[in-house]
Amino acid sequence: MLTCLRISNFALIDFLELEFNKGFAVITGETGSGKSILLNALDLILGARADFSVIGPDSTKSFVEAEFTLNDTFQSFFLSADLDFSSSTVIRREINTLGKSRAFINDTPVSLTLLRSFTAQLINIHSQYNTLELKEKAFQLDVLDCLAGLENEKIQFTERFDRWKSKKQLLESTRKDFEERVKWIDYNQFQLSELNELDLTNSDYQLIEDELNTLQNIESLKVNSYQISQVLIDENGVYSRVQSLKSTLEKSNVRNATLEEFINRLNALLPELKDIGEEAENFAEELRMDPDKISENIIRLDAFNRILTKHHKNSQDELIQFQNELSSEVYNADQLRENLEILEADFQQEQDELIILAGVLHHKRLSAISPISSNIQNILGELKMPDTLLLFQLSQSKVLSSSGNTEVNLLFSANKGIAPVGIEKAASGGELSRVMLALQKLISEKRQLPTILFDEIDTGVSGEVAHKMAALLGSMSANSQLIAITHLPQVAAKANHHAKVSKENKEDRISSKVIWLNSEQKIIEIARLMSGETITDAAIENAKNLILN
Q1: Per-residue model confidence as pLDDT tens digits over 218-277
Q2: What's the domain range around 285?
Q3: Can you point out the beta strands (E) in 251-372?
């Protein structure tokens, strides 16, 4: 529970240290006295975003500090957050004029996310504006799930829904990527087929071109080859004449080193001349006209050159590189198609399971409606609304959301014989306050929150209803520390502890202060709530009677 609240240089509060006890406490004060400042300070403790305009004029920073007494059930939270556990835990928020905000749990800096997670288990603040949430479908469903004990199941469903949503986003992204690629895949496949037909890795188109050139010029090649053979190795050819010359030189009686060198070189030349002549003759004899081969090579070269020009390439190596790139593109597209099929199957399975879970959650909600409605009716009866009907009307949607596929409509009728309609259309402000109080009572019992703070939950009620509301708040304080900001004397009279917020002039400026009232002061404050600033003896007597009764 909350044991102490310290505020420094925050709006109209210079410094405040307010201790709290068990039971039912009320806070009263004139309009504008600073009650909302206490709420704003506690909102910071709960992890609200800092409003740096609240920093007072006497310092460059403000702080709010709340001390709570914890039981051992919180040890697991401290362990998971790597914090030191203490049964007396202090939460602190600091904000400064430089626009910086810091949060601490037992002097250890923490994130606002962690702070919110922690304080949500400690205190619940319900302001008069929260009553309007009753008109919101999401809030109505949250209330139903809380009272039905389905909060953990909804959290688990939300986790599955988030996973389903992530898979859906991945599937849509992959499908879009595939659709972009598929625009080109047929064309790329066609281009790849053209390149594959060229058999680039097993063919040498330079050799094919050389072969075609040979076949197309076969007669000239034959003539030239025979001419080489004739000149070199015919009977009176170069070979015979060089051989004769060599023999003549060898028979000469003149010996000279240079001449010997000439003879040696001629001797070395003779085999080459003979070899060239014979090869030329053989080459000429082997040459055969092959029209089919010429046609085949022309077709292959035409195809090769056409593809070369089409893709603006300069060589077979460049075409092979381009072919590899296309193969990779086509392969990746095929892989993407396979991946897309896997994702679609996985997504469909996840969706099917999610629909089943949503159905289970929906039926559990349906089963819980009757006892919840009965409990609400009983509490509303205590609040002078015996003929009120408050019904949760549920239906199933075809659309999944993070809370399932349940659509809720909270129906309300304040009078017997009047058909219930949506609560947003029927309930008055006072009726909404009582309905919200009834729900909050059940919620507080379900969640077992250590501390609950109501900000003018009694708005719009008076007379006997105010007495009933005060009694209900008092009964709620038996299980939780209950703090209520109120303007009703009936509520204030039932409190175990009473604090008053007031303004005072201090060094030419207004500041707010909060004090706990003693018995006499409490009587005077309740009398003020009853009669205004002019407190009569009758008002004082009435105040005493309210406290006693």
Answers
A1: 888 888 888 888 888 888 889 889 888 888 888 887 778 888 888 899 888 999 989 998
A2: 179-336
A3: none
For residue 128, the model assigns a pLDDT of: 63
Q: What pLDDT is recorded for position 130?
A: 64
The answer as to whether 543 is a domain residue is no
Residues 14 and 113 both lie in one domain: yes
Distances in Å between the Cα of 502 and the Cα atoms of 12, 66, 195, 515 are 11, 21, 90, 9
Residue 443 has pLDDT above 90, yes or no: no
438: amino acid identity, one letter: A
CA angle 292, 295, 298 (to 5 degrees): 150
For residue 79 the two structure tokens come to: 């362990």
Task: Give the residue, 187 or 275, on which the prediction is more confident.
Answer: 275
- C-alpha count within 13 angstroms, C-beta hemisphere, residue 261: 3
Compute, in degrees rounded to 10, the torsion defined by CA atoms 519, 520, 523, 528: -130
Cα–Cα distances (Å) from 44 to 54, 93, 127, 186, 261, in that order, read: 11, 7, 15, 61, 112
Q: Are residues 105 and 195 in the same domain?
A: no
- Looking at the DSSP bridge assignments, the partners of residue 498 are 26
Same domain, 184 and 330: yes
Strand, helix or coil for residue 398: strand
Give the CA radius of gyration of the chain. Answer: 49
Distances (CA, A) of 210 to 193, 214, 263, 446, 518: 26, 6, 39, 93, 116
Higher-confidence position of 325 and 401? 401
Same domain, 78 and 193: no
Exposure letters 393-407 (e unless 16+ CB within 10 A, then b):
ebeeeeebeebbbbe
CA pair distance 127, 143, nearest whole angstrom: 16
Give tens-digit pLDDT for 30-79.
887 888 888 889 999 999 888 888 888 777 889 999 999 999 989 999 99
Q: How many residues does the chain have?
A: 549
Phi, psi of 91, deg, nearest 5:
-105, 135
* Cβ neighbours around 169 below 10 Å, total: 10
Q: Is residue 468 part of a domain?
A: yes
CA contacts within 13 A on the Cβ side of 54: 24
Among 450, 370, 409, 543, CA closest to 70:
450
> What does the mean pLDDT of the chain come to?
88
